[in-house]
## 1
Amino acid sequence: MKKWVLAFISLTLVAVLAACGSKPADNASEPADTNGAAGQEKVTIKVGASPAPHAKILEHIKPALEKEGVNLEIVEFTDYVLPNTKVDSKEIDANFFQHKPYLDNEIKERGLKLESVIAVHVEPLGAYSRTIKSVDELKDGAVVAIPNDPSNAGRALTLLSKNGVIKLADETKLEATAKDITENPKNLEFKEVEAAMLPRMLDELDLAVINTNYALEAGLDPTKDALFIEDKDNPYANLLVARPDNKDSEAIQKLAKALTSEDVKTFIEQEYKGAVIPAF
């Protein structure tokens, strides 16, 4: 009888141990999902951007990038200096706010190690006023404000020249200055102001040439409120910018592909109706 009981207990223990051995370990990993679903290791990239339209475009593509295994963290900046210095110092991975002439000047002036990844859209520069409806109404000695960085200052002067407000010696010179003005028939007074401040100062000025991102943030509609505006054929496409050490990384390339997708092209066209123009 005792032998029978011992045999029964032994068989029971074997069965229990076998059952325990069939359970997966608590720390066993799930199979990786190559489609970016649960289980795939996500890569987080931080991208600096102006609030509009750049950050809005980035927000639009976040779900698509999530499926590709990329977690996009958007860091908003309201100036044109920090987004570049933060990428250069590796505090963020990339930025999306500037055109190539501005980037080239910042690299030259600050010694930054940055490179363009891809062109995304054009933001036509526009001239705005609270007091006049046409440049013909500009009075003698009127005050005109333009951005104070060299690339956008030259761009603004070229726009004014092409619309007959002044005349430049060479309208193709990207970094024209007041010294390049050959004719100023209304003796206009030019003020160079930090680009972000221009919409706030509009009530104090006769005319201001404003970057579209800051115009949009201020509630201006470039297609309706600008007295005149650049056409889309210019060298000022806004870029995705990264560093030489990461611009070819898989995550940055996925971001570049998403920013130049047909989905983004449709979003830009429907959301901004000509105020922002796809560059691809």
Note: The first strand starts at residue 43 and ends at 49.
## 2
Amino acid sequence: MLVNIPYYHAVGKEKEVFEHAYKNKIPFLLKGPTGTGKSRFVEYMAHQLDKKIITISCHEETSSTDLIGRFIIKGAETVWLDGPLTTAVKEGAIIYLDEIAEARPDVIVAIHSLTDHRRELFIDKLGETVKAHDDFMLVASFNPGYQRGFKELKPSTRQRFIAVSFEYPETKIETEILVKETNVDTDVAKKLVAIGNKIRNLTELGLTETVSTRLLVDAAKIIHSGLPKRLSVHVAIVEPLTDDLQTVEALKDLCDLMI
């Protein structure tokens, strides 16, 4: 059976750092903007280590119950159902909490005992404490760029992790990523990366998020499948960035000059 290996282009020593964090049972934190390859990196490392990965995309409604588990009614009886965190702890999987700062505060409280020397999970509803499997690893990510105030991770939480910052790749590497991921022509990939870099530097637009590598990959994919280049850039890069009509038109005009 063919195994689909996640593609990841290292930009520093992040692979070595992750391997040592895993070996030493230290939680791992990825910091950086949306679409810089954080999730792909974790998938890649799970494959490299031959470990099961359980990914949770955290949001403002994500609670500790969602992660740890709950009682459910099954027929005439009430049974306990492990949540994804409990499953990972017992099975020795890698649990990846994507955008952890978005989750409710009780999630942070729940993982504290897993992120220090104890490596154990307390299941309040059962009155039980589960020791983490030897292969268990906790990985989390967050975007410090826009998560201000109450969505910021507290120092007491951040200091429980080894942390690596992710930024957008340099031009040459980002071009290689687009070509490898989508088979688009190198010339087109270079133009897309140039568009991405140009918009990233337009700080006066006040965009909440800027052009991610993910958006560039999406544009490259639909160009490669035959959609006209300018239309592809409009729908895959410009429109997802903003709903302000004037900004959209300005960005479209800028992109049309570059591709």
Note: The beta strands are 28-31, 53-57, 69-74, 77-82, 94-98, 120-123, 128-131, 137-142, 162-165.
## 3
Amino acid sequence: MKVRALQYVVLVGVAAVFLGPLYWLVSTAFKESAEIYQWPPAWWPDHFTWENFALAWKAAPFDRFFVNSTVITVAGTALKVTNAVLTAYAFAYLRFPGKKVLFFLVLGAMMVPGHVTLLPNYLTVATLGWINTYAGLIIPGIGSAFATFLMRQHFLTLPSEVTDAAAVDGAGHLRTLWRVVLPMSRPMLVTVVVITAVEEWNNFVWPLIVTNTASMRTLPVGLLILKDEEGLANWGTIMAGTLLVLAPMLLIFLIAQRYIVGGITQGALKG
């Protein structure tokens, strides 16, 4: 009984560490300016106000930012997941020279910090004339070593009898992938889609570098506009803007969470 009580105490403490900042963000978004700066701090707004959201929406073209983020997230996720699935299928089921070497290179790519590729990608995009375009925002990021690794490891856990039966029936690789492998991989596929979508939606550095007009900015970059030129901040407005950015991905995560726990662990240990 004592052990169980201790477990609950630890779980509540861990939850407080992760949920505390989120709670403070939400409560601050609905506070008036006087409540935000008062001491001791007000943990709950005395008077709920929607003014911060209106100010955030008017301070920057958030409608355009939302469209840009949506286009980049949908297109980027679709291309990245498609690329990862096809590559993972090749590593799991096809035989070709240098297969192991190429897979180790994919694993090595997971160890390279993303910021290392910023300059080469920027120079490439600038040479192609893709600065301030959707192509420049999306195309350089369509390869994902992590997504490829997760899908490949999962494919290896599927019973070989099923794919062998599809081959006997005359199914080609694309038909086998679409009709047999992917339906059996739904939890992992949803997991990869959610992880990729969150990564695309929250991407800040690359959109900041490769765009130079407000019409092509994304939501994370748009949050910078909520600060005035002197560096003073209206934290109620900033928190409201942050909540607007956070809400879509939080909703997607809540809808797909039942797939994620099972999907992220499937095949993790099989080589």
Note: DSSP finds 14 helices and no strands in the chain.
